[in-house]
Write a structure and sequence with these properties.
single chain; 5-stranded antiparallel sheet; Methylamine Dehydrogenase, Chain H; mainly beta
Amino acid sequence: MGVARDLVYVLNAGGDGAISGFRVNDGTLNPLVGSTRSLGLGNPATPPFLAAPSQVALTPDGRNVIVATKTQGVLDIFPLDRLGRPTPAPVVTAAAPGSVPFALSFDRDANLLVAGAAGVASSYTVHRDGTLTAISTAVPNGQSATCWTVFARGHLYAANAGSATITGYTDHHGKLALREPTGVAAHTDTGPVDLAASGDDKYLYQLATGAGVIDEYRIGQNGSLSLIGTVTGLGIDNGHGTEGIAAT
């Protein structure tokens, strides 16, 4: 789900894939007429995990909707009109070769930060017409199955489900670099599947679905991560459990 001001866009990953918009009025979601757009992926109704699109995001100014695919290897950008409705077709930008674009975040300058499942992160300037200009291209972290990300305290943090680690990237006006040369800001007991940061950027939370736990980290002034606690007992069913985490 992507949110900007009172505008919300959601992603349907089944079949061809589609996005749809909503407006928030007095805490109620109201469908935005004429906002649904197909992604034209040609997948079955229940697509294989890597064939499905992974995330939808709204730029902070609410002027573009962005969708990350995986094996398709592209970023679809739909510019929005003054009513918040997308253009009929997206502007398509190829991601770094082999990166498998997965997660979308934005830094303080509204630059787009993209995590690739191949263990990389990239950054772009997003233009009003939906085109992208690359800033950092496929900065590798040496980790496996880089999935969800969160931006906090001037750093991009990426969850590496295959390596059971979290990577920290420094961000200087969109230019990314590894905070630790090893690509490891923190080790986790099992593979993290999602990340969230507190509203004051002081704490980071990682959800490990397979273990049924949430690890809690303090974010240092320099972007370091210090484990301060673990919440257990979320429930596991054959190695699967709760997915998705948010913080305020």
